[in-house]
Specification:
Number of strands: 8
Distance between the termini: 64 Å
Helix content: 40-55%
Oligomer: single chain
Shape: elongated
Number of helices: 13
Largest sheet: 3 strands, mixed
Bound molecules: iron/sulfur cluster
Order of helices and strands: HEHHEHEHHHEHHEEEHEHHH
Length: about 325
């Protein structure tokens, strides 16, 4: 790495640890995982980065190129060679990102790259060299990238850990005097009611709070922003940071705030289940006001499946669970 490597990206990371990579190095990590030997392996400490990601899939990565987000800073780029400058921009273009963007390793390597760059075609594999400046990386014509993407890099949450979290969080929901629920999960709980499943599922705790509210509509609920009692068993819950690390993490933040705004409430407010659902049935008749308006082409702003079926409307037709 050279002296221009940024070491801090506070505006994007809020102080959380972050590594800097060039965009095409994301692909190199898959080649490395698949047994290849990337050209920048030592200079950019790619083995170390790979190890860190396998320890913590939410490690933040800032993408650095020879250019800034304007294509500047000057007319003649001075960093890197043309072939790798091109690879960096090809990768950013396919991922719909720009220089300086920061995402988690999980977002980049599990959600985006396998979907948008399934092969090295037209990034590293150029079907031959057109001139001395356009040397191909020898790894491009091996199976390393394919093997790496098939194996995957980011660890999934172990099944036993999720099962333990389910049991423990359900005990807490069953016994606590006051529920703690993120604002938009009140609507997801309602949507669950509209699916007529009426039984617990392994992946989250949408059913269990509903049972407590149905049995005791006067139970208090503290409204929060971010992960709540619904989340502990979920495959995209990061127990270390207590955040939702799936593609929905950011848009769910907006849904929380949209819900608060529609209900005229704020984080930390406490109301009974009856007060809350009376308010919801009065003020929210169209879920797209809260959860819609997303951009389906974009990983973090894609729509939730609940927008395209009638579960929310069905819940309204079914009536409040405690009536
Ligand atoms: S083929 Fe491309 S992605 Fe793979 S190691 Fe070489 S430069 Fe990196
Ligand atoms: S659309 Fe999705 S996120 Fe929104 S309330 Fe329905 S299930 Fe929940
Ligand atoms: S971790 Fe995310 S996806 Fe899972 S239940 Fe919580 S908010 Fe929903």
């Amino acid at each position: 790495m050279n002296d221009s490597t940024p070491t801090c990206n506070w505006p994007a990371t809020h102080g959380e640890e972050c590594v800097v990579l060039r965009p095409h190095h994301l692909l190199c990590l898959f080649c490395l995982e698949g047994g290849g030997d990337p050209p920048d392996r030592e200079e950019w400490k790619l083995d170390e980065v790979l190890g860190k990601i396998q320890e913590d899939r939410n490690l933040l990565i800032t993408l650095q190129t020879a250019f800034n987000c304007n294509g500047g800073p000057t007319t003649q780029p001075t960093m890197y060679d043309p072939a790798t400058r091109r690879k960096d921009l090809q990768v950013l273009q396919k991922l719909n990102l720009a220089p300086g963007d920061t995402r988690s390793a999980y977002w980049l390597l599990s959600l985006a790259l396998p979907r948008f760059i399934p092969t090295l075609w037209n990034v590293c594999n150029l079907n031959g060299e057109t001139g001395p400046a356009w040397k191909e990386c020898p790894v491009a014509h091996t199976e390393a990238y394919h093997r790496g993407t098939r194996a995957g890099i980011c660890p999934l949450r172990p099944a036993e850990e999720k099962a333990c979290a389910k049991a423990e969080s359900c005990r807490e929901i069953e016994s606590c005097g006051r529920l703690r629920i993120r604002a938009h999960h009140l609507l997801c709980i309602m949507a669950f009611w509209g699916r007529f499943l009426d039984e617990p599922i392994a992946e989250d705790n949408l059913w269990e709070p509903l049972v407590r509210m149905r049995e005791n509509p006067d139970i208090e609920i503290e409204l929060i922003e971010g992960a709540c009692q619904v989340c502990p068993p979920c495959g995209v819950f990061d127990p270390k940071r207590e955040i939702c690390d799936g593609a929905c993490g950011l848009r769910d933040r907006l849904k929380d705030l949209n819900t608060f705004q529609r209900l005229g409430l704020a984080p930390g407010d406490v109301r009974t289940a009856r007060e809350l659902y009376d308010l919801i049935y009065e003020r929210i008749d169209d879920i797209s006001q809260i959860c819609g308006g997303n951009n389906p082409q974009n990983v973090e702003w894609a729509d939730c499946g609940g927008l395209s079926d009638s579960r929310f409307g069905n819940a309204r037709l079914r009536g409040k669970p405690y009536e």
